[in-house]
Structure formats: C-alpha cells, structure tokens
User: Fold this.
Amino acid sequence: MRHARVAYNGLIQNAMDTEEGIQLEDGRIVEESEVTWLPPVEPKTVFTLGLNFADHAAELSFKEAPKEPLVFLKGPNTFIGHRGETVRPGDVTFMHYECELAVVIGKTAKNVKKEEAYDYVRGYTVANDYALRDYLENYYRPNLRVKNRDTCTPIGPWLVDKEDIDDPMNLQLTTYVNGEITQQGSTADMIFSVPHLIEYLSGFMTLNPGDIILTGTPKGSVDTKVGDEVITEVEGIGRLVNTIVGEETFQTN
Amino acid sequence: MSKVKFKHQGIQQIKEGIYQADQNRIEFDGKQCPLNELSLDVPVSGTVYGTLLNYKGEYAKLESSMNDDPYKAPPKAPILYIKPINTHIGYDAAIPLPEGFDEVSIGAALGVVIGKPAKKIKKENALDYVAGYTIVNDVSIPHESFYRPAYKEKARDGFCPIGPWVLDRDAIGNPNELGIRVLINGELKQENTTSNLIRSVERLLEEVTDFMTLYEGDILLVGVPENAPLAKENDSVKIEIDGIGTLTNKVVKEKVVVGGGIV
Assistant:
C-alpha cells in the first residue's frame, strides 16, 4: 500500500493510492493534481547519511570510504512535500540535488541487530537532500547551513509499506533535471546498508516510530538553477517532483 | 519575583507561576511550592539546536589549529547541531551513563526559547522573537574533534536535561551578562558568563535565522563554555544560571534508568 498526507480543500488528511485515484481517509477519491502534497510522515528526528556511496565519496574527492557511518540530523524547517518549491539563494554558485531512499521507522528500536532490523521498518519514501556547497565549512561537516535550510529537503510523495518492497538494497535511484537523466545509481552500492544503519544508530540511541533515515546518494550531482524541475525517483517507491525558485519568490519586502 | 512557565509530569497543559529565587520555590494556583517537591517535565516541545564554539575561551582553545587539517580555515557562520527528542529529559530525571563509559561531559548552556516563527530577523529586534530562557545541560561523551557531527557523542538517550521551567523573557534585562555555574556533588566545578559569548544572543539569532527558520517552542543553545566538567556514576549535577534558576540531575548507569527514574 502507498500512503500520503495531503491537504484537500483546507483539510489535512491521510490518503492512499488506489486505481481510481487518491482516496482520502474520509472516503472521497480525488485527482493527484487536486491536492497539496505534504511530507508523508511528519518529520521528528531525521537522520541523513553523508558519503554512503563509494562513487559519490570519490566524486567529492574523498580518497577513502568512511569507516563508520557519517550521520547528521535535520530540523523540521527543511522539509517540504511533493511538487513543492525549493529556494536557491542568489549568492550560491553550486547547489545540487541528492536522490535518496528514505527509511521510516515503525517501532521503537534500541540495540537492534542487523538480522532483525527490517522488523523495525515501517516503510520507505523518496527524499531529495539538496546541498548548497558554497556554505560548506569543516566544523561538524556537513554543517546545517549547507544541509538544513528551509525548503531544501523535499520528501514524498508516498510512504510505501515495507511489505511491498522485496529488496530495498537493490533499487534504482534516478534523478532527472528538466527531463534529462543526470544521476543514476543503485541502493545495492551503499557502503552501509539499511540494516547496518539501524544497528549502528539504535546501538547508541533510541529510534522512535516516525523517525526517518535518509540513506545517502550516489554520484552524479550537478548544479541546478532557478526554474529547473528536478525529479528524484526510487524504483518502486515513487517520483518526487520539485522546482527550484529564486529568493524573490519568498521575499515580502 | 519572575514569571515562569512549567510543566507538571503527566499533565499536558503548561502552567504559569512566579519563581521566588531567594526561597527557591514557585507560587502557582495560590500555593507556594519548594522546587524539590515538584515533579517537573520538559517545559517545551520544539527542536533543540546547539551552537558550537561560541564562547571565547572554547574558541581560543581550538584557534591555533583552525588553519590546519581538517579544519583548514576558521569558521565563518554559526555551527549548529541538534539534540533530538530521545535526549530530552526533565528536571531531576536521571542522566543515563552509557555502558562502557565512566564519565560524561557537562555542557552548561543558556537555552533561548523561541516565541514566534523567526526567519531572517535582525539583531536589533531579535529579542521580540524570544519567549524566555531555560537551562539546558548539553551532555556529551567527551571528544576532541569538531570535524564531523558528533551525534554518537551527543545524541544518546537522556543526554539533554532541560528545565526546570521557561523564565519569561522580560525577567532578564540582558541575556548577555548572565553568570553560569556548574556544581557537582555541591562542589563548584565551572564558572563562566554569557558576557564571554562571541556572538551575542541577538546576533546569533540574526545569523541562524538567516539560513533557517526557528519556530515557537524551539530552543537555541547559545553555546557551552570551555573546560566542561566531567561527571561520573551517582554524581549530582547542578547548573545554575543567574536569574533563571538551577537544573539538577543525577548521573546513573543506563541499565538501571527507566523512564527518567531508577529501578
């Protein structure tokens, strides 16, 4: 089953995907274009992996793959839903997307072993973890000024039940900018797999239901400009559409 | 006499009271109650952001290596991190000492509680966006490097005591001249003041909200002073901040902590 959170005629509702259209929890069936898409899970604690694909680490000139997961956290300010707009500040010269498989935790997890890790997964969604490389600094890198800006983490459209995904470690990741493929990879090439990440994180802290792990991105990061339509797609999970806008869109004078 | 907002354990709504600092008690609903008789919960529910290297002494300790690997240059913008929900505990709750560690470092931080959404605000009116102040203990596993985010050291369960309450903003004349003290088992282990901040509360709010929105109920920690004291099993840790009060917690082995208490 594929689940979403949407706003329709002023009401926020859970919804699911059906053959006839999107079914709201009050029973109505509506078109995809009639709803405002919200993040499919309300973000609380959200982990993100840096350098979790060897080819991407090499692309960023890291000679050696990391020995333990490079994890950072995001705040609720950064998330927007499917078909949202992401701001590119005027002074930035390099802003790139990152297509990522996002894992949603389903039950409280502490000291979970790899072998049991999938028992703690609720499902999966797609994230686009934009980075604004101009602001990178070598303190708690990647710093929040690069990675936790308002609107810079689109997520959705669907939360897909884990039962519907045979092997989350063998899914194609694809990014399209204005219809052209610019990034391709596979979750099979992650350095630290989903079960490994759950073991690692739950080994030092409690994971709660609704927590989200963004699992990192493969190589193929290119600069995006105002007006670009960026689609990040994870095979079997969904296509997340986003548009880059300039700061003036958000300025009120 | 200062207005405070606090939260009883097990009760959702926030209470208002008057903190009588000289008696260490609060008055609410017509009652006078000593602090140690109250069972208090975390008084806010937003995101807690910490700030690295915002005390002059802390910055000075690293300054000579800032041009070397891996830092390569001094920091330009505020360096933030998040203390996630699993770390938040209330006044008097036990700080779990994880298996395999003998000590934790005590990060005595002034917590600025946001009162309304703050985005690209200016320092001149930054305090208009502040609801009040609280005391936060940014507990960590001691570590030396600031190159990579230190979540394995900072995001452990119970590593962020917050409280005892949120003191009303107007009860503090200037948040940039507050004395901060850490006492362990009653002994003074650290003394500093927010007058040693590199970025004042107002300037920090301006520079942080330039790149991200802070929402009502979020807490921005202004920084942790240098030479953070260490606490071991069974130590009673008290952080005092002028005018705000004291935050007390005890360090207890993780395996005997359940729900903030001891089994």
